[in-house]
Design a protein that fits this description.
Length: 397
C-alpha cells in the first residue's frame, strides 16, 4: 500500500523518541542518566490533582466543548490581563491538547502548500515537522550564539514574497535565550511592516531568570502586532502538567475560530476532567508553582557552574530561561568516529547510558541540549559520564 508523499520527509519527534528510550531502559532495570527530559521535574502540584479527581468523581466524563469551555477560556483571558497585561476576550482564546496541537493547527490554518515559514535556529523540534505536514517550506535562519535573535537586517535576507509566518520562541528551547527589550522592539518594528503571521510560543514564560526576571510577550512591547500575532502557551511547563495535555492560544477571533474548527474534527476537545483542574491552576497562577520555579533556577545555575568547572571544553552562552543549556561540542570531535552531535549522542547513550538531545533536532549541529531538572546528584553523575566519554574520544582524535 502506498503512503502519502508528505510522510516521506516527516521524521518522528526525537525528543519524544528519547523519552521512550528512557522509559524502555527503566523498564529493563538498566541504570541510565537522563539529561534529555523536557519536564520541569516535580509532579503536578497536589491541589491541581485533587481538583481533577473531584471533577471525575462528580461525573465529568463526557465530551466537552471544542476549543475549551467558556469558563476555561475566561480564566485564561483573566490570567492574561492579570499576569501579562494583555486584553483578550474569551472569543479570542482557544484551548487544545497541548501547545503542540495548537501549533500544528495554527500552521494548518495559516499556511498553504509552498508557503514559507521562517524558523530561527535552534528551533523547537516540532515546528519543522509540522510545517512539512502542511507542505509548507521552512526557511531556517542559522544560529549565531553571539546574537540569538537576528536583527531586522539579517531577517530580511530570509524574507521572500512567499513568506507567510515566523515562529518566535522565548524563553527559547533549547538555548534558554530571552531577548533584550531593545532587540524585541527592533524585531517588532520590523514585523509591523510585514503581513506575516507571528506565532509566539511562550510556553516557558514562568521560567525567566535574566536580570529583569520578567517575561515579555512581543505584544507587551509592540502592541501594534496584535492582529497578526498568535500567542501559544500551555500548562505543561508552568504547572508541571506535561501528561495532562492542556495548551491554549490567544489571537484574533478569526484565527481562533479556525483553530477551533480544526480541533472539532481532530481531538474534539480537551479531556473534560482536565478543564476544571486547568481553571484552578491558571486562576491560582504563579504563586502555586513559585517553589518549583525557584528550584529550577537553582538547578540551572548549578548545572551551568558544574559545566564550567568539569567540562570546560563545552562552551555555552549562559541560559536565561526555560530549563535547558545548549553547549557547543569541541571541534576535535570532527576528527573522531563520532563527528556529529547526533553520532556522539548515540554513542554516549550506548556506551555510558547518558541521554542528551543532539543539536540536529533543533537544526544546529555540533551542540547538545542538556536539561537540568533532574536531581542535583543525577545531573552531577550524568555530567561526570559525559566528561569521561569526551575524554575517551579525545584520545582517538
Ligand atoms: N513549544 C515548546 C518550545 C516546547 O518545548 C514544547 C514541549 N513541551 C511545546 C511547545 C509543546 O508543549 P505541550 O504540547 O506539552 O503543551
Ligand atoms: N517539549 C519537550 C522537549 O523539547 C518535550 C518533548 C516534546 O514535546 O517534543 O523536550
Amino acid at each position: 500500500m502506498r503512503l502519502a508523499q508528505r510522510m516521506g520527509a516527516l521524521r518522528p519527534s526525537l525528543t519524544i523518541g528519547l523519552n521512550a528510550k528512557a522509559r524502555a531502559l527503566r523498564a529493563q532495570g538498566i541504570r541510565f542518566y537522563n539529561l534529555a527530559a523536557g519536564e520541569p521535574g516535580p509532579p503536578t502540584p497536589p491541589a491541581i490533582v485533587q481538583e481533577a479527581m473531584a471533577t471525575l468523581a462528580t461525573g465529568h466524563v463526557y465530551y466537552s466543548v471544542a476549543g475549551g469551555t467558556a469558563e476555561l477560556r475566561q480564566a485564561i483571558a483573566a490570567k492574561y490581563k492579570r499576569e501579562n497585561q494583555l486584553d483578550y476576550s474569551q472569543d479570542e482564546v482557544v484551548c487544545g491538547c497541548g501547545a503542540k496541537e495548537l501549533l500544528l493547527h495554527s500552521f494548518m490554518a495559516m499556511l498553504n502548500r509552498g508557503d514559507e515559514v521562517i524558523l530561527l535556529a535552534p528551533y523547537w523540534v516540532s515546528y519543522l515537522e509540522q510545517s512539512k505536514i502542511c507542505e509548507a517550506k521552512a526557511v531556517i535562519v542559522p544560529y549565531d550564539a553571539q546574537q540569538p535573535l537576528p536583527s531586522p537586517e539579517q531577517l530580511e535576507r530570509f524574507a521572500t514574497p512567499r513568506t507567510r509566518a515566523i515562529v518566535l520562541n522565548f524563553p527559547n528551547n533549547p538555548t534558554g535565550h530571552v531577548p533584550s527589550r531593545a532587540a524585541y522592539e527592533a524585531l517588532g518594528a520590523y514585523l509591523q511592516r510585514k503581513d506575516w503571521w507571528i506565532i509566539s510560543d511562550e510556553i516557558y514564560e514562568y521560567t525567566v531568570f535574566n536580570a529583569e526576571r520578567r517575561h515579555y510577550s512581543i505584544l507587551n512591547l509592540c502592541p501594534q502586532l496584535r492582529e497578526q500575532t498568535l500567542i501559544v502557551n500551555g500548562l505543561s511547563k508552568s504547572f508541571a502538567m506535561t501528561g495532562w495535555r492542556v495548551g491554549y492560544a490567544l489571537g484574533n477571533k478569526d484565527i481562533v475560530a479556525n483553530i477551533k474548527k480544526l480541533q472539532s474534527h481532530s481531538t474534539t476537545c480537551l479531556p473534560s476532567f482536565t478543564e476544571k483542574a486547568a481553571i484552578f491552576a491558571i486562576t491560582q497562577g504563579r504563586p502555586l508553582v513559585q517553589p518549583m520555579i525557584d528550584a529550577i533556577e537553582t538547578k540551572l545555575q548549578k548545572t551551568q557552574q558544574l559545566l564550567r568547572d568539569t567540562l570546560p571544553e563545552l562552551t555555552f552562552t549562559p541560559s536565561q530561561g526555560a530549563f535547558y543549556i545548549f553547549p557547543q561540542l569541541p571541534t576535535w570531535l570532527a576528527r573522531t568516529s563520532y563527528p556529529t552531535a547526533l553520532a556522539f549522542s548515540e554513542w554516549l547513550l550506548e556506551k555510558h547510558k547518558v541521554i542528551v538531545v543532539p543539536g540536529e533536532s533543533f537544526g544546529v549541529d555540533g551542540h547538545l541540549r542538556l536539561s537540568c531538572t533532574a536531581s542535583e546528584a543525577h545531573v552531577q553523575q550524568a555530567l561526570a559520564w559525559l566528561a569521561k566519554g569526551l575524554q575517551e574520544l579525545k584520545a582517538t582524535a
